[in-house]
Request: fold
Amino acid sequence: MFPRLKPSTETISLRLPKSLLDHLKTLANKRDVPYQTLLKLFVLEHVQTELRLRPAKAS
Reply:
């Protein structure tokens, strides 16, 4: 019914050191993607890695 509907997103505010943001923008430019998109990919990859590496805690 809505084939182009994107998953829900939530806006956040994130403060980064200027040098880190500059590096991120440089990397994004080299990959020809917006820096916000690259940052989302980096966060997603790291979270997925962490979730795979950490055993589930028993309740």
